[in-house]
Each structure stands twice: as C-alpha cells, then as structure tokens.
Amino acid sequence: MITDQNSFNWKKIFCFKNIVLNLVGVALITLALKGFMIPNKFLDGGIIGISILVHEITKWPFGVLVLMFNIPFLVIGNRMLGKTFALQSLLTFLLIAISMTFLEVDPVTSDPLLIALFGGCLIGVGMGLCIRSGSTADGVEILALLTTKKIGLNVSEVIFALNTLLFLAAAWSFGISTALYSIVTYFSAVKSLDYISHGLEQYTSLHIISSKSDLIKALIVQKFGKGITIIKGERGYLPDKFDVKLDCDIIVTVVTRLELLRIKEEIHKLDPKAFMFIQYIKEASGGILRSMN
Fold it and tell me: What fold is seen in the domain 203-281?
C-alpha cells in the first residue's frame, strides 16, 4: 500500500524505535553543542552553524534561533517531503530547542583539535540517528532541495555554497583559526553522519568480464555465498581488431568493502586476465547481500 504524502503516518511517527533514535540523536547533538562547540565558538555547517553564529553575535537564545531558522523551510518544503516527515522534523527541532534551553552541560574541553574531532563526531552521529528515525535535525537540505529547483544547481553545490559563506562569516567574526577548526568540525560531522545514516558496511558493485565466466559464477555463488546478476554483452572492438567481437557474460555482484579484496584475489587466480571494475553505491537492500557461509 502506498502512503499518501498529504496524510500523517501515525504508526511511523509513534514507532518506539524511531522515538528512541530521535531522543538519543537529540541528546548527542545537545552534548556536542553545549559541551564542545558553543563554549568555544566552533561552528558546524547548515542551519545549526548559522544559529551558533547568530547566537554568538546577538546573544539570542540558541533554541529560539534553531526553531526560527528551521521552521520556515519545513513549512515551505511540506508538500515535497510529506506531512509525516515534516511533523517528525518539527518534533526534532522542538526537542533540540528544549534541550538546548533547559539542559545544563559543562564544557568538556578547550582543546581545539579535540573539539573539532569529538564535537563533530557527536553532532554527526546525532544527526544520523535523527535521519534514521525518519526526520532531520537541520533544515539546510530542505533549503537546498528547494533552491535546486529554482537555480538548477544540485543539492551538494547549494550546501557547499551556503557553508562557504558561513565559514567566511565565522572567519570575519571569530578569526581565521576558529573558522579553520570549524571546517574540520564540519567534515568530522559529515563523515560520522554518513556512517550512521548509510551504515558502516559500504557496498560496492563489482562487474567482471572473463572468458572463464562459468567458473567465476560458481566461485562467487558457492564459495562466497553472494548473489549474481548476468548482463549479456559483447567484447572486442579493439583498435587493431575492430571487426572482431564475441558474446560474453558481464557478471555483477554486490559486496562489502571487506569482501571485495578476497573476491578479487580469488577471481585473479582463476583468470589473471579478467577485466573488473567497481562502482561504489550508497545503499543496497533485498536479494542476497550477506555471505551465507
């Protein structure tokens, strides 16, 4: 059954797992902000970074700024993203605002490198858990999606442009050193968020073309317990033998980065001349993704 984006999916909103993920995510974001970043004027990217910058300049309450900057984008993007996502994200913004206003967290350290690494990791993990729960803790991607439709840039380009302006403003307000450490904080957060939201197991799509395709098929399926897909193709068309072409099977399998090296080594033993190429993929589901050994 397809869920209408214009209706609320209450089962998803009140799912115990999603509630726990969201609460833990907000707690980690609060710890990162109050324990590491805000006391030392370190910024993250996106709306949270803008809120920190404005908070330091105006001394307005951080929780109020988070709501003030995030909610307009949520309202504008409501139709595109769906009511369930909008409501879950609104609840996340409210939780962040409440926790930042009422929870007391002592500064953990004043060492800039520790702040950049651990503050960034904590806020990245927290945001990743919020995404896993079905919401977002930062409205910048909503803004990027909306801007993309207007000016033709992709989401990454819009976010990069916004964050560049943000870090330039940080350099002007707090000094170049703080801005540079804030960039380290941001990249630490992005990497942590990526691991949490997409999983620690990075999947790769391995394509193999070989004259010994039957042996390689058996190797992948029987020894490694992986599923395969066969694409019918033609090999040949070499500069000196352009008219020579042969039918071939292109073997495709999805493996983790830990399995990739082992499978490549075994294929090389069967056929040292096998042609292989790899594509990194963000997410894979269904089929046989894990070894059955």
Answer: Alpha-Beta Plaits (3.30.70)
